[in-house]
Amino acid sequence: MAIFDWKMLAAPDIPALMAQSPVAILPFGAFEQHGPHLPFATDCLLAESLVDDALAQLPESISVLRLPLMPIGDSIEHQTFAGTLSVEPDTLQAMAYECGAGFAAAGGRQLIFFSGHGGNKAGLDIAATRLRRDMGLYVASICYFDWAIPEHVLPSSVRRYDLHGGAIETALMRHFMPERVRDEAVADWQPDCAPALLDGQLAWMAEDLGPAGVAGNATLGTRALGEQLAAHYAAALNQLITEVADLR
């Protein structure tokens, strides 16, 4: 396994590196409110931590080029909460596309957009398709929230309304950075919204979830659950990297 950090490379390193057909990973975060108990940078912190875990498990035959985190994402649904920073969806799509185009110009062929924020997914998916069409790149676009969680880890009845700042994100933060969770503010935020919102059929703003802009039972977000979730998501990302590496 060879892992290269793009920001630490110099221009003469690129030709030899691209000859190894590395899979590039471009993590995307967000800077948005996560209720009273989690920091604004939660999505950034989790995206990078999950990439760390996945890369630690890769086979030795795979080369990975780690691109720098894109910390500001499409968080327009959280903009009514002070402190949230966001770009418009078209801006995010353009950023992702142009970074992919730069990777292609350097000789790259396989790229993964890995997001710690669900709101980034639409823009990243479109950018991925455009890069395939225009540059011939193989691009995977995934948010870790998209991977199904085994029922024994987190029941679907809980997962259904765990939309933001709930058990999943709280558990992962307790696992990776427990000192960043404000224990006294953790609560069970039952969403007060239409079922169509929970099922992903209705567009929403964070305040539609409830006054705190959170939906989910964060009291279930234990460190033990976070350890299980981190292993599950890292294994899924590891598998995706392996599959993308096989594309030529």
What attributes characterize this protein structure?
Rossmann fold; 9 helices; alpha/beta; 248 residues; two-stranded antiparallel sheet
Q: Your description of this structure?
A:
This protein has helices at residues 14-18, 42-55, 89-105, 121-135, 156-159, 167-176, 195-198, 206-209, 223-245, and strands spanning 2-5, 23-28, 63-66, 110-115, 138-143, 188-189, 216-217. 39% of the residues lie in helices and 12% in strands. With 248 residues, the protein is of the alpha/beta class. The strands form two sheets. A five-stranded parallel beta sheet has the order 1-3-2-4-5, sandwiched between helices. Helix 2 (42-55) crosses helix 9, helix 3 packs parallel to helix 4 and helix 6 packs across helix 9 (223-245). It is globular and about 55 Å long. The chain has a single domain, classed as Rossmann fold.
Compile the SSE list and pairings:
Layout: E1 2-5, H1 14-18, E2 23-28, H2 42-55, E3 63-66, H3 89-105, E4 110-115, H4 121-135, E5 138-143, H5 156-159, H6 167-176, E6 188-189, H7 195-198, H8 206-209, E7 216-217, H9 223-245
Parallel strand pairs: 1-3, 2-3, 2-4, 4-5
Antiparallel strand pairs: 6-7
Helix pairs in contact: 2-6, 2-9, 3-4, 6-9
